[in-house]
Amino acid sequence: MNSILVPFDMSEPSQHALHYACELLKDTKDAKITILYVTPLPEFDDPTFEAASQMAGVAPITGEQQIKMEEKYLAKQKEKLIERVTSLDEDTNAEFIYRVASGRPQDIIAEYADSDEYDLISMGSRGLGALRGVIGSVSYAVLRSVDIPVLVVK
Predict the structure, then answer these.
(1) Which CATH number is 3-153's, of 3.40.50.10190, 3.10.270.10, 3.40.50.620, 3.40.1260.20?
(2) Could you report the per-residue pLDDT of 24-56, keeping only the tens digit for each?
(3) How far apart are CA 28 and CA 10, in angstroms?
(4) What does the pLDDT look like over 117-134, one tens digit per residue?
């Protein structure tokens, strides 16, 4: 095993999942840990946002402007992710690769898992959202939808 995908939402269980991934690859040469943060995008085309813009006298944004705003937002989220993971000070020789995407977390995680780049997914049992049950809904959905091993960590 030399490549682990860690879906990371800043929650304590996701921090534990990252820790386990680091431990598993601690002494592995050329190991890689991809830390994936899935975030919802702000809705720039929301009717409330558009009404407020019109009342303020701001011209509606174009599709190209929206794309640039989304890219800027994702870049800022990546900076926050790197800062958060760096503050955890994990002891590993593995290379960290940071990825930020938007969409439904279970779908994005499954897409990454389907890339055949990873030997394992290490993820928290519950994230920051309002999840029910013994295992989080995202963890459960990922378990059911991927073909690689999944380590679910409390």
Answers:
(1) 3.40.50.620
(2) 999 899 999 999 999 988 776 677 766 777 777
(3) 25
(4) 999 999 998 755 544 444
Round to whole Å and give the CA distance between 3 and 30. 9
The CA dihedral of 108, 123, 83, 101, to the nearest 10 degrees, is 0
Q: What is the pLDDT, as a whole number, of residue 116?
A: 86
SS3 138: helix
Could you tell me if 2 and 34 are in contact, meaning their C-beta atoms sit under 8 angstroms apart? no
Q: Give the Cα separation of 113 and 94 in Å (integer).
A: 19
pLDDT of residue 115 exceeding 50, the answer is yes
Is 139 exposed, middle or buried (CB count within 10 Å of its CB: 0-12, 13-18, 19+)?
buried
In the chain, where the domains are located? 3-153
At 20, is the secondary structure helix, strand, or coil? Answer: helix
Q: Which of 18, 38, 28, 23 is nearest to 122 (CA)?
A: 18
Percent of the chain with pLDDT over 90: 63
What pTM was computed for the model? 0.84
